[in-house]
Amino acid sequence: MKTPALETYDVVGVGFGPSGLSLAIALEELEGDALESPVTAAFFERQSAFGWHRNMLLPSAKMQVAFLKDLATFRNPTSRFSFVSYLHSVGRLARFVNNQDFFPTRQEFHDYLEWAEARLSDRVTYNTEVTAVRLPAANEHGDHLKVEITDHNRGESRVVDARNVVISTGLVPAMPAGIERGDRVWHSSEFIRRFADCDPAQLRRVVVAGAGQSAAEITRYLYDSLPHAHVYAVVPSYGYAIADNTPFANQVFDPEAVDDHYFGTDQSRDAFWRYHRNTNYSVVDDEVIRDLYRRVYEDEVRKVSRLRFFRLCRVAGIQGNGSGVRLSVHSLLVDQAFDVEADVLVCATGYEAMQPVGLLGDVDDLLRRDGDGRYQVDRDYRLSAAPDLPGGIYLQGGTEHTHGLSSSLLSNIAVRSGEIADSILGRRSAGRPATPEPVVTMTDPGRLVALRQDLGAVQ
Ligand code: FDA
Ligand code: NAP
Fold first, then answer.
1. pLDDT > 70 in the chain, percent
2. Which ligand 1 atom is the nearest neighbour of the CA of 408?
3. Is the beta carbon of 329 within 6 A of some atom in ligand 2?
4. Are the C-beta atoms of residues 19 and 413 closer than 8 Å to each other?
5. Is the CB of 170 under 6 A from ligand 2?
6. What is the pTM of this model?
7. Tens digits of per-residue pLDDT, 102-118?
8. Residue nearest to atom 18 of ligand 1 (CA)
9. Ligand 2 pocket, 279 CB below 6 A?
């Protein structure tokens, strides 16, 4: 794969986090079988260097996915980009195995991602933000999608042509309604940077809102890093709830579960969410929960009370008070609000799904939506579009309603990016028709047909 000076690409990737990286690997590994001429791909990333949720790289934070669910292994177990290849290359394979732990630290996985990125850095430009994907204007040459880029390296905007655009822009931080970020009010996604800018001695009362993994990790970190401070956790639940990582439930992240979600019924899709949301959202790893509980208990034995929980409570509003922040906290228990003064509020209040709509401009008019106004997405992650769309637009993320729970996660990243690469390469071999027909089958792949036959045989 090359990134030529000519600014027309087979693939323009928007964002170079793990999803973009995994796609670059899949394109490289799959194009070998493919074609007469190399696939041209260019990725644009707005950060100034590779980084995966850097502001949450807390020292003891562990991965929430097994190391074998890396950028490539589930698609290609012999890939040179696997986590095992990384361990071998840095000389830690034997010692990693001695740990007998499927879940590396986030620090180590970040190091792995940087190692993989270093082998692909010729196809990504950092400091470049994609601002729009649009149709060619009447006076513009070309039958491709136009991708507008603000290039902070060159201090200019430019447009490149794309036969396919893959949007992998990641989750969007969510704040409680009516609460804005500021010097004293942080979202968890900016935590390490904000904390580094503070004088820890000045932080005597800190509040963490939320009961998910981010909240629990930050609460633990603040408690340990600020031994002189009071840490208040505002949790909407009665206490942190456990992330279900048990084997049967974990099957919702298997590659086959994507077919079951995609080709199932509205009732089965609803059941996926109702029964298995607790594998990922508003839940915390067992280890972190027990670690925090131990601190509270040991404090109680020592007759100190430094970590306090406001249970069944939500942060409802804030007022700045000069040097700190005054929060209004609503207790669900008594249906009443009370005030809490703090030096800092950290909102570990989660994320919205990836939102491509802001990028899609006039293209959006050609995209099909379902009865609830959500994008229709083909099984190969391509947005379903009217015939006159001059190219394919694929999503990595933002497809929970069609492809299920793994859409924003790492679990299925290798297989997903392989399916997208296959679709792009397949359409290219098929001669890139102006009205591209799906190459990856869009009908029930046979799995559910077989299931129906099995169920028939049971009777
Ligand atoms: P990601 O957000 O990582 O990358 C998107 C990239 O696009 C970013 O680098 C961004 O700068 C760039 N970008 C955005 N808009 C752009 C634009 N307009 N132009 C150019 N670039 C743009 N999941 C899991 O399965 N296991 C785990 O252990 C974890 N751990 C975890 C920790 C934390 C702290 C969080 C917040 C989330 C997780 N997740 C997770 C879920 C998380 O979504 C997942 O790990 C990956 O970040 C998904 O990778 P993406 O590349 O899709 O998004
Ligand atoms: P999350 O799971 O969505 O949790 C957000 C929490 O904030 C929920 O408990 C939510 O409660 C609560 N909340 C929302 N508004 C609130 C308010 N006004 N007051 C108080 N609480 C409020 O988000 P997350 O913890 O950031 O996790 C997001 C993703 O990142 C997950 O996939 C997670 O696994 C991942 N992650 C991974 C790691 C790691 O790998 N080590 C670390 C951090 C995060 P309700 O549910 O009631 O709204």
1. 92
2. 43
3. no
4. yes
5. no
6. 0.94
7. 999 999 999 999 999 99
8. 130
9. no
Per-residue pLDDT tens for 74-101? 999 999 999 999 999 999 999 999 999 9
Q: Which range (188-192, 210-214, 331-335, 388-392) has the least confidence?
A: 388-392
Q: Ligand 2 center to residue 103 CA distance, Å? A: 20
pLDDT digits (tens, 9 = 90+) for 56-75: 999 989 999 999 999 999 99
CB of 348 within 6 A of ligand 2: the answer is yes
Q: Please report the atom of ligand 2 found closest to the CA of residue 177.
A: 18
User: What is the pLDDT at residue 33?
Assistant: 56
Instruction: Report which protein residue has its CA nearest ligand 2's atom 3.
Output: 350
pLDDT in tens, 372-422: 999 999 999 999 999 889 999 999 999 999 999 999 999 999 999 999 999
Rounded to the nearest angstrom, the distance between the alpha carbon of 349 and the centre of ligand 2 is 5
